Amino acid sequence: MSRYPSRWTKIAHQFPGDLASLVSTETKITCRLLRSNAWFSMRVFLAGLCGRWLSSPPPVAEMPGLLFKVGMAAVIYAYVFDIANQTTSATEDAINKPHRPIPAGLLSTRGGYWRWFLSWVGLPMFLAALSGTDAAVSLVGWEIWTFFCYVWPKFNNCLMRNTFTAALVFLTGLASQSMAALKTGENSTHFTLANDRFAVAMAKSNGQIVDVTLDGQDLLGPVNGNSGKGPYLDCSCVPSGFWTPGSSAQIELLNGTDSTGTAYGGLVMTDTYKPTNQTLSQYLFVRETETGLHAFSRVTYFNATTPLLRDLGELRTLWRPNTNLWTNFSTSDGNFGPMPLPSSQSNAISVQDATSYLGNFTNDPYVSQYSDYFTKYTLAENWRTHDAHGLFSDGSKSLDGSTFGAWLVHNTRETYYGGPLHSDLVVDGIVYNYLVSGHYGAPMPNLTHGFDRTWGPQFYYFNRGDPGTTLADLRADAAQYADPEWNDDFYDSIAKHVPNFLPSAKRTTFEGKVNLPKGAQNPIIVLSENEQDFQLNVFNTKSLQYWAEIDQSGSYRIPRVVEGTYRVTLYADGVFGWFIRDNVEISRARAKKNNTFTWREESAGKEIWRVGVPDKSAGEYLHGYAPDTSKPLQPEQYRIYWGIYDYPAEFPDGVNFHVGKSSEARDLNYIHWSFFPSKGNHLRSEPYYENTNNWTITFDLSKQQLRNTRTATFTVQIAGTKTTNGNDKWGVTDDPYSNLPWTVNVNGRYESTWVIPYWRSGSCGVRSAVACQNVEHKFVFPASHLRQGKNEFVLSLPYNASSVETAVLPDALYVQYDALRLELK
User: Fold this and answer.
1) Do residue 62 and residue 44 come from a single domain?
2) Which residue has the higher pLDDT, 461 or 146?
3) Are 213 and 199 spatial neighbours (Cβ–Cβ below 8 Å)?
4) What is the DSSP string of 141-180?
5) What's the CA gap between 299 and 455, in Å, rounded?
6) Is the pLDDT reported for residue 173 higher than 80?
7) Which tens digit of pLDDT belongs to each residue from 56-93?
8) Would residue 374 count as lying in a domain?
9) Taking Cα atoms as reference points, which of 450, 460, 452 lies closest to residue 410?
10) Residue 613: closest CA among 578, 667, 577, 573
11) pLDDT of 248-292, one tens digit each?
């Protein structure tokens, strides 16, 4: 007993006069009061915290704070009990525990009552400030139970003593769980969602997230116009063009606990564009144990007086920081680099719409490491294997040197459009989630009376690393969540808050086997809108899409498929054509059905030759997937501004490709131009017309190859087409090249024209892409038009075929080839 006064008296001597005496006395009282039960309380609390850690382990960085809070709560619970027990049991303690404050003469009974009153009122308020209202409510429950058992009616029997201990375990367990509980709040200007590490605030004035913090680090920066915000929602959807909802929004604050026992909070922003009665809604959720936002978006249009309003041209969420914290971009595992400096961007030379030349700023890390040109299209990605994209902070501008990541994770993709061939913008200083766009010729749904669709979920994830943690490390941490089965219990729990989103009870796993054709590489299976090309799957507002890679054994598995009727599509590298089957019923009742498909490659006879690889892209040709070795990070060449590839210098005599001798990677350009444009080309003042629109393919045939053949089939697969429609998917015009004629001439003996339809048009190569709208055609002609020895195919676009461009963009029309094949039968 004597050790308590001596130790705490030394501490108290640091305080002057009466204060030192007060602190010394109160310290002695508290230590003697807690001597019997504090360690037991601490062990119970630690056990409760361990239970939480086992069910959902917190990050290592969170542990010190949790341990401190648990220690404080354990002391508070012990004090609340012991002060009441001491005050009402002083006579008993004089016999059994004479060291306690009242028997020892350190505290009067009156003083005990005062401390009892002050602690029972003040400590719940202190605990609420420290750990939230849930922790305070648990403490009040403990006070009520202590009063019932030890003050009045004070049942003094074995049953009540054991029940009292059980209640302690239960209530302290609740309190331990609440140490990291999610907190929601509202004041006159903002709504907030927060857990121990992560917090967001939505402004009531605009319905937008305006604060995002992780471990005390501000990730957004100050609001300035449309920057310093996000994720927020906007669209190209009203008669005048773009609309950013929120200024007249209704905002709902949600609280709940999911089926795993994890707390969550949500914010629902809904705004209506009253002139046309179209509504945009955004649903954002934060879970207790996660540092990110689960995002859904919804569009409705109900207006019988205008049954067709317009197309839904764009729908996107944007996370748009306004801070120098972020230093690097990452679009995929293989494409990353430093962001251009703001000073370089503000003084850059514009070379075409949304494309700038930065090459004069040689000290800019983007220029020295990645490219002399910057455009958001360079940083686009294809959806097939895409998992995450975002921004990285190398720690040079953070508060303590820590690294940070801000990511959009594709944990689901069922509500996007265009299937696995779709590409879109992902990051350019803004972290995008493009739900709908017309980029690269992608289809866009029409807003018709009754339109009601919800997109999502996707996950805006924010992470932190110790100083020196790499971009690749933080990216891998984010990418692990790109799994449709991740968090399915949570999504089932919040489905009641999100219209049109279906829980697991309405979903099943679609799995089976595919018997693949010989030579199939990287095969894939796609589920999409029934009886519709998945590249154009926008006609049914309930349209969904799923896909999975097929493994070497031919097996596939697609989880969490909404029950319904789908089209199944198969394709693979190295195989011409597609496998398509409609009216495939998928339901939980049929989940055990043998879903086996046998795919036989299309054939029109014996294959004589093929040019290119049928892989739905033009990446194997010159300036396609080959790396740009002029920069250390070596991005793929197709990503870089097209104007630096001087077609007249590379093909002064035009394209002359001899099958079996020429190289696709060297002798075929990734774009077949109608002419080489000067518009949008800051390196050329005049267009170039010679030797451009006609390409020549030559090949040799032997007498044996031609023997007993009657029919020749020439297959052309195209990975991208630009007609005068550009990205206008559904606009029919009277322009002669809205539908683009493409002609083949065989040895001067046969000529046929294929008219590529306007709805396959899209800006592809000039927007840094090699895979856009895929389309194919077969030319069938008599084999007698071929001859023994050298043969010649001339592939032609109309001479000087051009479009009218209102922006600074190339006006030349073009195609980009996937693959060509000749068969004889």
Assistant:
1) yes
2) 461
3) yes
4) HHHHHHHHHHTSS---SHHHHHHHHHHHHHHHHHHHHHTT
5) 9
6) no
7) 555 555 567 778 888 888 889 889 888 988 888 888 77
8) no
9) 460
10) 573
11) 999 999 999 999 999 999 999 999 999 999 999 999 999 999 999
Which tokens hold the place of 353?
């719409």
Pair 194, 115 in one domain: no
CATH code: domain of residue 127:
1.10.357
How many structural domains compose the chain?
4
Distance CA 167, CA 153 (A): 17
* Closest of 487, 433, 498 to residue 282, by C-alpha: 498
How is the beta sheet containing 217-218 ordered, strand by strand?
Answer: 183-186, 190-194, 198-203, 208-214, 217-218
Question: In this predicted model, what pLDDT tens digit does every residue of 238-260 receive, in sequence order?
Answer: 999 999 999 999 999 999 999 99
Residues 195 and 137 in one domain: no
Q: Over range 494-522, report the average pLDDT.
A: 98
E strands in 274-387: 278-287, 292-301, 308-311, 314-320, 328-332, 335-338, 349-352, 355-357, 373-375, 381-382
550-589 tens-digit pLDDT: 999 999 999 999 999 999 999 999 999 999 999 999 999 9
- The rounded percent of the chain whose pLDDT value lies above 90 is 78
Name the average pLDDT for the chain: 92
Say if strands 595-598 and 507-515 run parallel, antiparallel, or are unpaired.
parallel
One domain for residues 414 and 547: no
Q: Can you give the pLDDT at residue 152?
A: 80
State pLDDT tens for residues 542-553.
Answer: 999 999 999 999
Which of 471, 497, 523 represents a domain boundary (last residue)?
497
- Do 585 and 527 belong to one domain? yes
Partners of 45 in the β-ladder: none
Q: Is 9 exposed, middle or buried (0-12, 13-18, 19+ CB in 10 A)?
A: middle
Going by C-beta distance under 8 Å and a sequence separation of 6 or more, which residues neighbour residue 105? none
Considering the domain boundaries, does residue 349 fall inside one? no
Burial class (CB in 10 A: 0-12, 13-18, 19+), 288: buried
Residue 488 dihedral angles phi and psi, to the nearest 5°: -65, -35
Same domain for 513 and 588?
Answer: yes
Tokens representing 106 are 């350190």
The pLDDT of residue 49 is 61
Query: Residue 8: what pLDDT?
Result: 42
CATH code of the domain covering residue 549: 2.60.40.1120
The residue among 556, 581, 602 that closes a domain is: 602
Calculate the CA 5 to chain-centre distance.
Answer: 60
In the prediction, which pLDDT does 640 show? 99
CA distances from 591 to 346, 408, 587 (A): 57, 32, 6
pTM of the model: 0.83
**What is the number of other CB atoms lying within 10 angstroms of the CB of residue 429?**
18
**How far apart are alpha carbons 139 and 80 in whole angstroms?**
9
Please check whether residues 456 and 583 belong to one and the same domain.
Answer: no
Distance from C-alpha of 585 to C-alpha of 567, rounded to nearest angstrom: 9
Whether residues 541 and 646 share a domain: the answer is no
The CATH number that applies at residue 312 is: 2.70.98.10
CB crowding 746-759: b at 16 or more within 10 Å, else e: beeebeeebebebb
Domain that holds residue 671: 607-824
pLDDT in tens, 725-758: 998 877 777 899 999 999 999 999 999 999 999 9
Which pLDDT does position 3 carry in this prediction?
A: 41
- Distance from C-alpha of 139 to C-alpha of 133, rounded to nearest angstrom: 10
- Report the distance separating Cα 440 and Cα 766, nearest Å: 10
